[in-house]
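Support request, please re-run this one:
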Amino acid sequence: QVQLVESGGGLVQAGGSLRLSCEASGLTFSTHTMAWFRQVAGKERWFVASITWAGYSIYDTDSLKGRFTISRDNAKNTAYLQMDSLKPEDTAVYYCAARRGTYTHTRVQDYAYWGQGTQVTVSS
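Re-run finished. Output below.
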């Protein structure tokens, strides 16, 4: 059974940092693209960043790329999202996702496997 388990969320003041982790099991990690999405109550789930097995990554916007860094450790079957200079508008539930392939997909429907989500709250 494929499982993605997120951790590392919490409460932080604006300007602070958090690192989210996503540990995968039940799949061949190095054959899957990994991604992070986020969702605010009442809004659709939205793409944050994705990274291929070889380490090629993309971000939703240039502004987001300047503050967030996606990475992966294939030996640990784990993907990460380092979040710096956090803003209140970053507050959301963050979800890890996985898709077999080699492309940095950006749509919710592109991903077959999802974690349970981890809450990130940024106070002003």
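The first strand starts at residue 3 and ends at 7. The mean pLDDT is 96.
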